[in-house]
Automatic annotation (TrEMBL):
<dbReference type="InterPro" id="IPR042098">
    <property type="entry name" value="TauD-like_sf"/>
</dbReference>
<comment type="pathway">
    <text>Amine and polyamine biosynthesis; carnitine biosynthesis.</text>
</comment>
<dbReference type="GO" id="GO:0045329">
    <property type="term" value="P:carnitine biosynthetic process"/>
</dbReference>
<dbReference type="InterPro" id="IPR050411">
    <property type="entry name" value="AlphaKG_dependent_hydroxylases"/>
</dbReference>
<feature type="domain" description="TauD/TfdA-like">
    <location>
        <begin position="275"/>
        <end position="438"/>
    </location>
</feature>
<dbReference type="InterPro" id="IPR038492">
    <property type="entry name" value="GBBH-like_N_sf"/>
</dbReference>
<dbReference type="GO" id="GO:0046872">
    <property type="term" value="F:metal ion binding"/>
</dbReference>
<keyword id="KW-0408">Iron</keyword>
<dbReference type="GO" id="GO:0051213">
    <property type="term" value="F:dioxygenase activity"/>
</dbReference>
<dbReference type="GO" id="GO:0005739">
    <property type="term" value="C:mitochondrion"/>
</dbReference>
<keyword id="KW-0124">Carnitine biosynthesis</keyword>
<keyword id="KW-0479">Metal-binding</keyword>
<protein>
    <submittedName>
        <fullName>TauD domain-containing protein</fullName>
    </submittedName>
</protein>
<dbReference type="InterPro" id="IPR003819">
    <property type="entry name" value="TauD/TfdA-like"/>
</dbReference>
<dbReference type="Pfam" id="PF02668">
    <property type="entry name" value="TauD"/>
</dbReference>
<keyword id="KW-0560">Oxidoreductase</keyword>
<keyword id="KW-0223">Dioxygenase</keyword>
């Protein structure tokens, strides 16, 4: 089936040392998007008038630039920015109103415009004051507001092939990521957009330090921070030999959402699919050991365009993944303890949302079991679909091939990009070594939003 794709010549090798360093606020990602938002956040026009539409239970607001918005009574009462409605503190923000006691038929007792604010007296004695800017940023009738608000979820991605990502690959300096919030923001935003970004100049403890900057490292059955090097009692294919590995995503054997699993000699724990992975090159190989990445979202779209039947099959049929073994961790007594695991999960190779957008890729041939959640007559076609998906992954035009040097760090989306490494040779006294860890998207995106609030970033979104 590879002949149907007509692969081009050998893919291009990218040396990180030759990738232009990305800097902070002077070269913020999404420049056009920011410009559009900055325009929308210029000095807010003043309130000019209002109409109380009793039949629709809404207040129509007009600004002096001609724009207007309709605000339902119930929404205005529910979102009133006052200390009776919300608890505000340095540690939290939460709504005090409970739906059990909330009057969804509430009607204002008095409505007025004073000092460029909408003032409403409510039957419970609460007096709400909504500034012109507050109302403008939350106008339910404004399509730009809806577009802007959707950005809070940081779901925008840009798919890539090897040529496209090589032209915009993001590389940041370790000290800047550690010390400059603007750089940390842009580094994490690059990962949201492209699924991958690099850091250079990492110190031996770089994984722990970047993990602390991001927030929470996600613990796995390999611990929090792990080391990758070839060893005799390998608990993972990456440690088993210096031979080339196949393209894969990590941990297809784990479930998402989280579920309780059992483990010998350990109490029950919570595991989920680990959504981002970070690796730090401590000692590169003497020869080989290149890191290869492919955008699984891009591959899925190629499959959808050229082989729709197989795309649909991989979005529908669940594959089973099994992972059994053990790893050694330091216990609370500072002594090594053996952790035995027996993971089992089912996943579709390609997951889409309700609109058909590809939102997750999960595939690992080493852990794939014999069981398929489908009719027996579909099994042959499933193998053809997996083979074709894999063939697209190995198209040189799709592969980002990176030579990582000592101190280089990569953070990538494990449920978007498939990754591997080439075979390598190292001397016994200087083995190839990496350290790494995992993160969840929730923690990474939370950090981006927190940084935007802290930095008063143009893309910051109102909380209340």
């Amino acid at each position: 089936m590879r002949g149907e794709i007509n692969p081009p010549e050998q893919c291009h090798l990218v040396h990180l040392s030759k990738v232009t360093r990305s800097h902070c606020s002077g070269n913020i990602q999404y420049a056009l998007t920011i410009a559009r938002y900055c325009t929308s956040l210029k000095e807010t026009p003043t309130l000019s008038s209002f109409i109380d539409n009793i039949s629709k239970r809404q207040i129509e607001i007009r600004w002096n630039d001609g724009k207007c918005g309709n605000f339902p009574y119930v929404w205005l009462r529910d979102t009133s920015p006052d200390t009776q409605t919300y608890t505000f503190s340095s540690a939290m923000m939460a709504r005090n109103l409970t739906m059990r006691d909330f009057n969804v038929e509430v009607v204002p007792q008095r409505i007025a415009l004073e000092d460029d604010q909408l003032i409403i007296d409510w039957p419970t004695g609460v007096v709400s004051k909504y500034s012109s800017e507050w109302l403008r940023l939350r106008n339910p009738c404004d399509d730009e507001m809806r577009h802007r608000r959707r950005q809070v979820y940081l779901k925008e991605t840009q798919l890539w092939n090897a040529k496209e990502i090589a032209s915009r690959l993001s590389r940041y300096e370790f000290n800047a990521v550690i010390n400059d919030d603007h750089v940390l923001h842009d580094f994490l935003l690059s990962v949201c957009r492209d699924g991958i970004a690099f850091v250079s100049g990492g110190t031996p403890d770089a994984v722990a330090r970047i993990g602390q900057r991001i927030g929470l490292i996600q613990r796995t059955h390999f611990g929090e921070i792990f080391e990758v090097t070839t060893k005799a009692d390998a608990s993972n294919m990456a440690y088993a030999s210096n031979k080339e590995l196949p393209f894969h995503t990590d941990f297809p054997s784990l479930n998402d959402p989280p579920q309780v699993i059992s483990a010998s000699d350990q109490s029950s724990t919570i595991c989920m699919v680990f959504q981002l992975q970070m690796l730090h090159m401590l000692q590169r190989a003497d020869e080989g050991g290149l890191n290869l990445f492919v955008d699984g979202f891009h591959v899925a779209e190629q499959l959808r365009m050229n082989h729709r039947k197989y795309f649909d099959l991989l979005t529908r049929v669940k594959m089973e993944y099994i992972e059994q073994g053990y790893d050694v961790h330091e216990g609370i007594d500072a002594k090594p303890h053996t952790f035995y695991y027996d993971m089992a999960a089912q996943h579709r190779v390609i997951r889409t949302d309700m609109d058909g957008n590809v939102i997750r890729i999960q595939f690992g041939n080493a852990m794939r079991s014999w069981f398929y959640e489908c009719d027996v007559n579909e099994i042959q076609e499933i193998y053809r679909a997996m083979k074709l998906f894999t063939d697209y992954c190995y198209l040189p035009e799709n592969i980002l091939k990176i030579q990582m040097e000592n101190g280089d760090i990569v953070l990538w989306a494990n449920t978007r990009l498939l990754h591997t490494r080439t075979a390598y040779r190292s001397s016994a006294d200087r083995p190839r070594r990496l350290s790494g860890c995992y993160f969840s998207w929730d923690i990474v995106k939370s950090r981006i939003r927190h940084l935007r609030d802290k930095l008063n970033h143009p893309l910051n979104q109102p909380c209340v």
